[in-house]
Write a structure and sequence with these properties.
The protein is of the alpha/beta class. About 35% of the residues lie in helices and about 25% in strands. It contains 11 helices and 13 strands. A 5-stranded mixed β-sheet has the order 2-1-3-10-4, sandwiched between helices. Strands 7-6-8-5-9 form a 5-stranded mixed β-sheet, sandwiched between helices. Helix 9 runs parallel beside helix 10. The longest helix has 18 residues. It is globular. About 45% of the residues are buried.
Length: about 325
């Protein structure tokens, strides 16, 4: 094999560098070539606005894709939940590796669980999706919480709790796991309480569509179950015409009968950020065997949600 290093484009954040480093190691093993990380700053990294305001869609991705198209890097690693749902014709998702834990987690003061937080607890999150579902759960269970919009990396967010400015923050389990900080979690939020973002916990490895040999090599890292699950989730998001900062939660999981996986369940929720109105539905069917079957599953559930008024809920943003 060639000794010329493959260039992996990555965001500069600690989390992005950690997950790109893990992918680099795996790619090096399957290709026999060294892999070097090329750090790229994205608009989402430099903007100080809240994600809900800058739209979310593509803000962490565009600069990486531009570098790929210019040939400055050979492939790029993204958090799949950051990817816009429309795939550019000249780029291909060569691999979606096995998904990490898709759940959201709480890091709270005094090792508190979500339901044990004091009345009036201030919970930090930059995500309208998380705010909508936490507020809806609080309303349904007579909890008194206030969701507070925040930005920043993991250190910054957890720092608000340690400094006493917030009672808790909500983060993704996968991210904390990848940077070795999962032991700081005080509560794992059940997906029955908070559905994750479409694609949460999964990575996307993208390269140029005309690089057949690299596509073939990267394909060794692809997990077919993860791919059909996130394809269904992202198809739902696309059919709702919602960006990746919209208050949409979705999770496709596999249902097994003993050792045999025989069905896939897709659950989704859309809600106003204050938690007053939500549309939550699910569907179960055979495990999709093709891209088209997976996208059909997502589209069908989105159609049902739109029929129940989902579009009107997504237009509302946290002020």
């Amino acid at each position: 094999m060639s000794d010329i290093p493959l260039r992996l484009g990555t965001r500069r954040s600690r989390l992005a560098m950690a997950q790109s480093g893990q992918v680099a190691e795996a790619v090096s093993q399957v290709t026999g070539r060294p892999v070097e990380l090329v750090e790229i700053t994205t608009y989402g990294d430099t903007s100080r606005e809240h994600l809900a305001q800058i739209g979310g869609t593509g803000v962490f991705v565009t600069a990486l894709r531009d570098a790929l198209l210019r040939g400055e890097v050979d492939f790029a690693v993204h958090s799949l939940k950051d990817l816009p749902t429309t795939q550019p014709a000249d780029l291909v998702l060569a691999a979606v590796p096995v998904r990490e834990d898709p759940r959201d987690v709480i890091v709270a003061r005094d090792a508190l669980k979500f339901t044990d937080l004091p009345r009036g607890a201030r919970i930090g999150t930059g995500s309208p999706r998380r705010a909508a579902q936490l507020n809806a759960y609080a309303r349904a269970h007579a909890l008194d919480i206030a969701t507070v919009p925040i930005r920043g990396n993991v250190d910054t967010r957890i720092g608000y709790v340690h400094a006493g400015e917030l009672d808790a923050v909500v983060l993704a389990a996968a991210g904390l796991s990848r940077i070795g900080r999962i032991d700081e979690v005080t509560d794992f939020l059940s997906v029955d309480t908070v559905l994750p973002a479409p694609g949460q916990g999964a990575l996307a490895i993208e390269c140029a569509a005309d690089n057949a040999s690299l596509i073939a090599a990267l394909g060794a890292l692809d997990d077919p179950f993860t791919r059909v699950a996130v394809t269904a989730e992202r198809s739902l998001l696309a059919a709702l015409e919602a960006g990746c900062s919209a208050p949409v939660g979705a999770l496709a999981d596999l249902l097994a009968d003993g050792q045999t996986v025989n069905e896939m369940r897709l659950r989704a929720v859309v809600g106003t950020t204050d938690g007053t109105r939500t549309v939550q539905l699910s569907t179960t069917g055979p495990v999709p065997e093709t891209y088209d079957q997976a996208t059909a599953l997502g589209r069908e559930l989105a159609t049902e949600m739109l029929a129940q008024g989902a579009a009107g809920l997504m237009g509302e943003r946290a002020q």
